Amino acid sequence: MRSAIIRRAGRAFVTISLLAALISHAYGRGRGEASTPGSGFITISDIHFTPFYDSTLATRLISADYRHWLAIFQSSLVRGLGTYGNETGYPLLESTLESMRRSASNPGYIILTGDLLAHNYRQTFNLYATDRSDSAYDRFVYKTLAFLVSRIRNYFPNTPVFPALGNNDSYSGNYSIGPRSRFLTDFQRLWQPLVARAGTSQSFAKDFPAGGFYSVPDPIVTHRQIILLNTIFFSKKYCNRCDSGSSFCATCDTSAPYPGDIEMAWLTKELAACARDGRHVVLAYHIPPGIDVFGSVDSTGGSTAPVTPLWQDRYDTTFRALMAAHANIIDASFAGHTHVDDFRLMADRAGRAFGFIHITPAISPVYDNNPGYQIFALDRSSGVIGNYETRYVDLTAQTSGWRKEYDFRSTYGAARYDVAALVNLYNALQADPVIRQHYIAYYPVSSLHGNALTIRNWHGFRCGIENFSVADFTACCARK
Known about the structure:
The chain is of the alpha/beta class. The protein has a single domain (10-478), classed as Metallo-dependent phosphatases (Purple Acid Phosphatase, chain A, domain 2, 4-Layer Sandwich). Helix content is 36%, strand content 14%. The chain contains 16 helices and 12 strands. It has helices at residues 10-27, 58-63, 69-74, 90-103, 121-128, 134-155, 182-195, 202-206, 208-211, 259-277, 313-325, 408-412, 419-431, 433-442, 458-466, 470-478, and strands at 40-44, 109-112, 161-163, 214-217, 224-228, 280-284, 330-335, 342-347, 353-359, 372-378, 385-392, 403-407. A 6-stranded mixed beta sheet has the order 3-2-1-10-11-12. It has a 6-stranded mixed beta sheet with strand order 4-5-6-7-9-8, with helices on both faces. A hairpin with a 6-residue loop joins strand 4 and strand 5 (224-228). The protein is globular and about 60 Å long. 50% of the residues are buried.
């Protein structure tokens, strides 16, 4: 993609955003006041929950019903929120949900963009289990998910919750969930009560067990549909192990029909139906399309070899063509997976942006980010997102608790959160060092422990915002 992405209004935006940044700084970044949008929703991603944060509990957890897990966790002497490089234990999970309830006690809905389970979940389970069979592991995964659902229901008893699948969410291993698998059936059964709070969950009951994707009416905005995709099927790393529960093929199954093709055909029909019926659309999924920037940029902002796309090329191309064809009805897209606070802009070959992907940072601090989630305020009648704020906890000073990190409007001087505002932000990253520094600081949720994005390599990360193909990304990085 050429770097011509709409450069109008860049100078005015820089001036406004610089003033807003100075005002924000004068009042103190990270003030602790709660924020409750009148009509809004929450996005949360990459929880990566591990019950094994306290290894002394492992044997009891494996043998106990999940309904007894809360008492077991509360008996633990490990009370801290965790440390960088580790996954989300019970204290961090509970602290996150409590903060969400305080900050937005009655959100219109919650979008959970995947990866509920910790990395290497099977390997960790095997360290503590005496029965290491597939069936024993499957039961433990089911209990873990049931516990997570129970805790979310406890804090949000009336709020619709829409989960998307992450690459770690399966019985059969990382990037290897199978279509029509027992895991999908079990997952659908567990989450059905929370999804059904939106009023109708026919697609969740019908489509999710088939492929992990579904569609629901927006609980806040009338005539709008929320489509949740299983982008694991589109991943370069995906292996279809023809999972039917615990038994799955030893090698990847490449026979037709391929799960990603079936899902893309479903999405094509779903978007066409929304366009025909005059409904707008919000999309949510785990892995965003584009380049794995973290693994494709060197310390100076140049591209590495090889540059790694996140999706298979054919799905990336088809998906972006669909987004362009239906740009007039697609209001926003939400993703996770990268564990950082970021965004992507989809544009045509002339550089005209037609859509954006918002990437929600992780709760898990396994990649040295601070835990964070985001609250979006929108207009109920128009569906326009007016603003969002990030709330986070600094793991280097856990006693300070959760607090506001920043909000988009005051930090970047934008009247609303949409394509035009993100185009202006993209341009300001090049032109305004103050805006660039904000973007760098907020990328790992204000973590000072380790940030892959630096003042030396920011250009390469900026290239990842608008360049989705290997050729376009490589060419952009070469122009640093």
